[in-house]
Amino acid sequence: GAGVSQSPSNKVTEKGKDVELRCDPISGHTALYWYRQRLGQGLEFLIYFQGNSAPDKSGLPSDRFSAERTGESVSTLTIQRTQQEDSAVYLCASSSSASYNSPLHFGNGTRLTVT
Amino acid sequence: AQTVTQSQPEMSVQEAETVTLSCTYDTSESDYYLFWYKQPPSRQMILVIRQEAYKQQNATENRFSVNFQKAAKSFSLKISDSQLGDAAMYFCAYRRGNEKLTFGTGTRLTIIP
């Protein structure tokens, strides 16, 4: 079946502009994660949605970052007033929570460049 | 908070040889899961292998196996008969229950032909 889809795959924006990144998880997956990966570095946790529970927002680096998810479907990560340090690949992943050892299925990410 | 440490930023191995990537983690929990993910240049994260903490037997997936030392909080990945396609970033990860998945900083593996 279809995997996790992220759009756009690349985004170039000017400093100070707002951007929206979209993630379509695998159908039926109740858990959805956003991670940030700066060039050559590891995955930095941003936010985690699990079913109807309150999202874990502990990784959001500032109030310029926010994310929403409607039910168990699409999620949108919004970055307001972008800064150059926001340049990174933003990865989305989903998993089934039927078992907590279920692996994450990742999208190919959105490469954000802030000029 | 749980932390995952990968102390080897880069590793290289001759093709067909064996290489071991290190991972340690810090947790006060007794029941959790550990994972190794691979990220090739295509950027796609791929699950390599996973280990349940309550299982003493080390997980194995074809050429990939782990050495899980629960008391030492160590979870190393061994790749046997290394192939060119194994070249990638490898990330160790920890998860407890339905909590978030926490990743290490990664090890870049180079395969020397």
Binned, the helix content of chain B reads under 10%
Provide a count of the helices of chain B. 0
SS summary, helix count of chain A? 0
Mean pLDDT, all residues of chain B: 93
The strand count of chain B comes to: 12
Give the oligomeric state of the chains in this entry, treating copies of one chain as homo and distinct chains as hetero.
heterodimer
Alpha carbon gap, first and last residue of chain A: 37 Å
What general outline of chain B do the C-alpha atoms trace?
A: globular
Order of helices and strands of chain A: EEEEEEEEEE
Largest sheet of chain A: 6 strands, mixed
Unreliable spans of chain B are none
Distance between the termini of chain B: 41 Å
Q: Estimate what percentage of residues of chain B fall within beta strands.
A: over 45%
Helix/strand class of chain B: mainly beta
Secondary-structure element order of chain B, N to C:
EEEEEEEEEEEE
Q: Biggest interface pair, residues each?
A: A-B, 23 and 23 residues
Shape estimate of chain A: globular
Note down, in words, how this protein is organized.
The complex is a heterodimer of chains A (115) and B (113). In chain A, 0% of the residues lie in helices and 46% in strands. Chain A has no helices and 10 strands. Chain A has strands at residues 5-7, 10-13, 19-24, 31-37, 43-50, 65-69, 75-79, 88-95, 105-106, 110-114. In chain A, strands 2, 4, 5, 8, 9 and 10 form a 6-stranded mixed sheet that branches. Chain A has a 4-stranded antiparallel sheet with strand order 1-3-7-6, with no helix packed on it. In chain A, strand 6 and strand 7 form a beta hairpin. Chain A is globular, with a radius of gyration of 14 Å. Chain B is mainly β. Chain B contains no helices and 12 strands. Chain B has strands at residues 3-5, 10-14, 19-21, 24-26, 33-39, 46-52, 60-61, 64-69, 74-79, 88-95, 102-103, 107-112. In chain B, strands 2, 5, 6, 10, 11 and 12 form a 6-stranded mixed sheet that branches. In chain B, strands 3-9-8-7 form a 4-stranded antiparallel sheet, with no helix packed on it. In chain B, strand 7 (60-61) and strand 8 (64-69) form a beta hairpin. The radius of gyration of chain B is 13 Å and the shape is globular. The model of chain B has no long low-confidence stretch (mean pLDDT 93). The interface between A and B is medium-sized, with 23 and 23 residues.
